[in-house]
Design goal:
alpha/beta; 7-stranded mixed beta sheet; 4-stranded parallel beta sheet; 11 helices; 13 strands; globular
Length: about 300
């Protein structure tokens, strides 16, 4: 029984250690390498004083470091708080005030005290910095036992869009996230994910759609995730073609932008499945893709 979301990666590493889990630019990470990096990160968090139940915030984009930090936090038994890396100062302050994280991992330095509430002590580490590397190195030197898992324990706090007020922190358990992945893996005709798939990871990972229905689902299946930091219509299409992407988790703005491309069928010839979420997909776009790309778009609905 899967008790911790990070166990999904461990299980795939046991089954397919040499298979590529992540493609991040020119970087390739196998399942064995990813699982080892997650272990080291989890132990590094322990050395840094992070205890099970502590909050760890992540102001990170779509990169390998996000994946390692996210699953490393969960493996430590701590609670991950993914944040939009494009957040304003006010949005970061609100999230920190609501969750009181012990650590905050960021893509860039957060200059000045205005980013963080004065009454909440939080250590900020920049991804790829010397301090980040030292923490991971300490984790490799002194591996710590993995805390006992509890499927009912809190795994993630994700902030809502705030369309009816200030963003609210939705509290998601390990069981809820794993059950969602299990249900998706059970889908057939077409299968939502197989171990042979290559998946486009361009949707922002701080959002629940990309976090669980793309990232966690891909790694649970033992498939390969191609991480892309941002969506650019032509550039992303070319990336799909050159990496042989077979599954695309997208949103309406992506498909609307791609509708203007003249050679969709050729650029998407490796793709077997298109999904859409986050907002309603215009019926005209659905019909266009079915005609010009010979692919239907499967629409999903969910909540943070």
């Amino acid at each position: 029984m899967i008790e911790n979301v990070a166990d999904l990666v461990a299980e795939s590493a046991r089954r397919r250690p040499g298979h590529v889990a992540l493609v991040d630019g020119d970087r390739r990470t196998t399942y064995a390498g990813l699982d080892s990096a997650i272990d080291a990160f989890a132990s590094g968090l322990s050395a840094a004083g992070v205890q099970p139940g502590d909050r760890v915030a992540m102001l990170l984009g779509n990169r390998t470091e996000f994946v390692v930090a996210y699953f490393g936090t969960l493996r430590r038994g701590a609670v991950a708080v993914p944040l939009n890396p494009a957040s304003s100062v006010e949005e970061v302050r609100h999230a920190v005030a609501e969750t009181s994280p012990r650590l905050l991992f960021s893509d860039v330095p957060l200059h000045g005290g205005e980013w963080l509430p004065e009454d909440i002590p939080v250590r900020v580490l920049v991804a790829g910095s010397r301090q980040w590397a030292d923490m991971v190195a300490e984790g490799r030197r002194n591996p710590q036992p993995v805390p006992a898992g509890d499927p009912a324990s809190l795994a993630v706090v994700l902030f809502t869009a705030g369309s009816t007020g200030r963003p609210k922190g939705a509290m998601l358990t390990h069981r809820a996230l794993v059950d969602n992945v299990t249900q998706l893996l059970a889908l057939e005709q077409p299968a939502a994910m197989t171990e042979d798939d290559v998946v486009l990871g361009v949707l922002p990972l701080f959002h629940v759609y990309a976090l669980n229905s793309v990232l966690a689902l891909t790694l649970a299946a033992g498939a390969t995730l191609v991480l892309e930091p941002r969506f650019f219509p032509r550039q992303t299409l070319e990336r799909v073609r050159e990496t042989g992407v077979t599954v695309i988790g997208g949103a309406p703005p992506m498909y609307i932008a791609w509708s203007a491309e003249p050679d969709l069928r050729r650029m998407l010839q490796s793709v077997r499945l298109l999904t859409s979420g986050s907002a309603p997909l215009p019926s005209a776009v659905f019909e266009q893709f079915k005609t010009t790309a010979s692919l239907p778009i499967w629409e999903g609905y969910g909540l943070t």
